[in-house]
Amino acid sequence: MASEEVARDVLQRTFVKGGRYRQAVIVLAAVFLLGVVGFILKLGQDRTQWGYYAATFSYLFTVAQTAPVVSVAMRLAKNHWRRPLARASELFAVVGLFNLLLFIPLLILLPSIEGRNTIWILGVWPSRFYTPHIFDTLMLVGLVVLGLLFLWTAAVPDFAAARDQRGGQGRYAFLAMGWQGTVRQWRVQRALLGLLGGLYFMDVLTTHFLIASDFSMGLVPGWVDSIYPAFHAITGLQAAVAVTIVTMFLLRTVGGYREYLPMESFWGLSKILLALSLMWFYFWWSAFITFWYGRMPVEQNIVQLIMFGPYRPFFVTAFLFCCIFAIGLLIWNPLRKSPAALAAIATMILVGGFFDRMRLYVSSWSLATTTDHTLTTVPAAIWPQVPDLLVIAGGLAGAVLVYLLATRIVPVMSIWEMKELRLYQVPRQLVRRRMLSLGKPD
Amino acid sequence: MQDRRTLTDIQVNETLTNTVLKTPLLWYVIVAFMGGIVLLGVLAVGLLVNLGQGLNGYNRPVMWAFFLTNMVFWIGISHAGVMLSAILRLAQAEFRRPATRAAEVLTVFALATAGLMPIVHLGRLWRAYWVFPYDFSRGIWPDIRSQAVWDPHAISTYLIGSSLFIFVALIPDLAVLRDRTTGIVHSIYTLLALGWRGTVRQWRLQAIAGIILSALLLPVFVSVHSIVSWDFSMLIGVPSWHTTIFAPYFVIGAVHSGVAGVITVMILMRWLFGWHDYIRREHIDSLGRLLFVVALAWFFFFMLEFMFGLYHQEGTEMVVRELWLFHAPWNAIFVIFILTAFIIPVPLWLFRSVRRSFPLMFFTTILVNIGMWLERFLLIIPGLMRKQPFTFSWGEYAPSVFEIIIITATFALVATMILLFARAFPLIPLGDAKEARVLRDEIRIGRRTVQAVLREE
After folding, report:
1. Which of residues 213-252 of B touch A (CB under 8 A)?
2. Distance, in angstroms, between B452 CA and closest chain A CA?
3. Which residue, A224, A307, A340, B85, has most beta carbons within 10 Å?
4. Which tens digit of pLDDT belongs to each residue from B225-253?
5. Which domain holds residue B56?
6. pLDDT tens-place string over residues A284-330
7. What are phi and psi of B57, to 5 degrees?
8. What is the mean pLDDT of residues B26-48?
9. ipTM, 2 decimals?
10. How many pairs of residues across A and B have Cβ atoms under 8 Å apart?
11. Mapped to the 3 state alphabet, what secondary structure does A239-279 carry?
């Protein structure tokens, strides 16, 4: 397909949405409203009953707000197979706006840091009441702003293409910010993408550190686990790659973008997903073996609380889905070469990831007292009630709804990157074999 | 921009086998000098065996010091081999080609040197084999719950795997040497070349073997340094060691120092053997970018380890951090560590001109390894000095001259072994260099010519 045809085709799919799109929006909106009802039903409940809400927020942060890192990291590696998936992963940044709303009740519910272990040991704020609320909010807002800026910067050339197609007027004229495609503008755009991408990546890691420490570990007396923020980040990356694969598959089958999403992109991501699944096990095992080996009572209680005690079904599900089954299936080349199989495995990982967040956050939030020196008794499990299930469903539906609505404005395929790919890829013949000559940008 | 000139197969063969067939005089001088230092180290070990480990000043509470630090350091250096060779091979990164053999060789010799350290530390060196379950009649089995048993098994597995990895990749080059030598040397190369004729089938099998070994060595590579880290972190008796982050922290630190070490070796090779056409600016530029990312990851883990040492504000952990920050000479060592391991080199690597400068990359990678040695020193010894909450059980430590001589000798040993290897085998794979030439391409985009690489469709 010629470059101009790519632009016309992708923009046409952006502006004109079919019946299935409208149906999906209606269903998701309805489920989201049910979630709002569930939230209202939960108002007035004790903090210990809000674990599922916290797990939902953490899961959406883990999946959606870490997803743009897939594009950032692949851009840094300068490979070409990332181009078809770049925009699809960058678009998840808009879900951050929705997640910011979910964050507000958690800020209100979070207990004071007085008398308990916390990363805010120096009490840097004049009044400790504002710590960690201020800093965590700043990091999360910063993440959302950086994500949107990154998305905007990456999409500017496509907004310009849309502006030109629509006669130079309207919202795309504003979004395109006067883009003409001069050499200077391209250079500035490339530099900005590098800068914003780097900042986004660092902000994601920092926010994982803060969310994991303040909204999970800090609520459990005696839980000192230096690898936990890193585990939180790695599982986030695994979920981010998984959701990108699922999104690519849906775009390919339901969205009609089959021609733009070659097997090579799935193949490249599948190897990364395998590596991240192995790292899931590695980071979990590092924590478990260090706690388990020494047989210290407080550490044994922590292991019981978050793994083998009341939330064992959640842990076992997460362990099997995110680790054992994922690794066992992803090592098989035929499965990694099938987009459908890969999407199924990615979906399984996403389900496992949600169970993982539930076992970590529901267990943490279930403790009535946060100011003991150590965890002496493991409380019974808190199972989800109807309002919890509504909140979970509504939260997930709301996130997907926001993403779908964003695809009405932002082309889900990066037009300029696809055009660039056609310039960098030239077919060649080497002896008797057909090869591709892939240009290496400096 | 990529600077290169086109070379024929004959030129590649001649230049890269020069070190074997026509060794420069400087090689003999350096080997003699390094060999002398190694001999000094052997003498120091002999004295320790004869007169006892008390010469090192080891006593409660500091029972592990320079030797363990050095062991962890060399195991760290050894991680470069699998990182560059296996991972970059699986990722099909072109910039790995001149680095793979040097990295693999550095791995094997660094591992062997690391394995010597706990043996020297034993005092009764001749009993080292007791860690292996070799004898049923003694009625004493090695305690599998002991870290002293895990380490030898892990290190020897990695050593055997890495050696096999080098040998498989070396076979085609051994055949080239076989065809260019006579006499007994020819017989030895013939034996080692295993009948290599360069047929299509042999190349295919060799490539498959390389991929399988790469995939098998990767978990070994992660597990070895993780097991070494668990020597420390699983102990509840030393509170500052008992932290869950140690495994990935040690591994990423190993990759950080290992890749820096490989860059140092590559720049030395370029200078010593005149390999300007094979080790080019684009290679150290790409390796520098990899090192930048690894350094950031290492710093993330370092910050986690530091912060969570302060998290629960337990006295035994706070005093160690206090020692690092407020007490001489530990605070000076800490400052030197953080400057050399991160603050000086990493911002410099942001600049393309630095990454493409051989002197600057040599300087910064040396700094990294100084810093990483000090990092292991700071992790191990202050924790032991302050491991008990009772101040009367606190101890101090100062290195002995024997330790310094032995540590210096380990550096000389690794250098000597690499140079001896270069005397017998080419340090850059000939096949890789020729394959790079075949897969190299150029494409025109507008008025610019862009370097490209051929890939299967």
Report:
1. 219, 222, 226, 230, 233-236, 242-248
2. 4
3. B85
4. 999 999 999 989 899 999 999 999 999 99
5. 9-453
6. 999 999 999 989 999 999 999 999 999 999 999 999 999 999 999 99
7. 75, 20
8. 94
9. 0.92
10. 114
11. HHHHHHHHHHHHHHHCCCCHHHCCHHHHHHHHHHHHHHHHH
Cα separation, B277 vs A269, whole angstroms: 35
Name beta bridge partners: A428. A435
The whole-angstrom distance between B171's CA and the closest CA on chain A is 25
Q: Does the residue A425 lie in any domain?
A: no
Residues of chain A with Cβ-Cβ distance to B232 below 8 Å are none
Chain B positions in Cβ-Cβ contact with residue A287 (cut-off 8 Å): 244
Predicted confidence at residue B1, as pLDDT, reads: 45
Looking at residue B255, which CATH number applies to its domain? Answer: 1.20.1630.10
- pLDDT, position B335: 97
A224 touches chain B (CB under 8 A): yes
Residues of B in contact with A209 (CB under 8 A): 304
Q: Could you tell me if residue A17 is inside a domain?
A: no
- B interface test, pick of A200, A290, A428 with most B CB neighbours within 10 Å: A290
**B245–A427 CB contact, under 8 Å:** no
Instruction: Name the domain count of chain A.
Output: 1
Reply yes or no on whether the pLDDT at B153 is more than 60: yes
Has residue B321 been placed in a domain?
A: yes
- CA B336, CA B120: separation in Å to the nearest integer? 28
In a domain? residue A11: no
SS3 call for B389: coil
Of A119, A225, A294, the CB nearest to B234: A294
Per-residue pLDDT reduced to its tens digit, A56-84: 999 999 999 999 999 999 888 888 889 99
Q: Do A424 and B450 touch (CB under 8 A)?
A: yes
Question: In this predicted model, what pLDDT tens digit does every residue of B340-388 receive, in sequence order?
Answer: 999 999 999 999 999 999 999 999 999 999 999 999 999 999 999 998 8
- Write b or e for each residue in A163-192: b if 16 or more Cβ atoms lie within 10 A of its Cβ, otherwise e: beeeeeeeebbebbeebeeeeebeeebeeb
Residue A442 lies in a domain: no
pLDDT at residue number B405: 95
B59, with CB counted inside 10 A (0-12, 13-18, 19+), is exposed
State the number of CA atoms in the 13 A half-sphere of A23 facing the CB. Answer: 3
Contact at CB, A282 and B307, closer than 8 angstroms: no
- Helix (H) or strand (E) holding A325, with range, is helix A325-330
Instruction: Please calculate the CA angle B74-B78-B79 and round it to the nearest 5 degrees.
Output: 125
pLDDT at A122: 62
> What secondary structure letter does DSSP report for A435?
E
User: How many domains are contained in chain B?
Assistant: 1
pTM value is 0.93
Task: Give the whole-angstrom CA distance, residue A275 versus residue A327.
Answer: 9
In a domain, B4, yes or no: no
Structural domain that includes position A115: 22-409
Contact list in A for residue B224 (CB cut-off 8 A) is none
Q: CA B132, CA B146: separation in Å to the nearest integer? A: 12
Q: What is the mean pLDDT of chain A?
A: 92
Indicate the helix (H) or strand (E) that contains B229.
Answer: helix B200-233
Q: What is the DSSP code string of B231-283?
A: HHHT-SSSTTT--TTHHHHHHHHHHHHHHHHHHHHHHHHHHHH--TTTS-HHH
Q: In chain B, whose CA is at the least distance from the CA of A433?
A: B456
- A376 touching chain B per CB within 8 A: no
Peptide bond into B329 cis (omega under 30): yes
Residue ranges of chain A with per-residue pLDDT less than 50: none
Sheet holding B440-445, edge to edge: A425-430, A433-439, B448-456, B440-445
CB B92 within 8 A of CB A78: no
Q: Looking at beta carbons, which residues of chain B come within 8 Å of A433?
A: 456
B453 in A contact zone (CB under 8 Å): yes
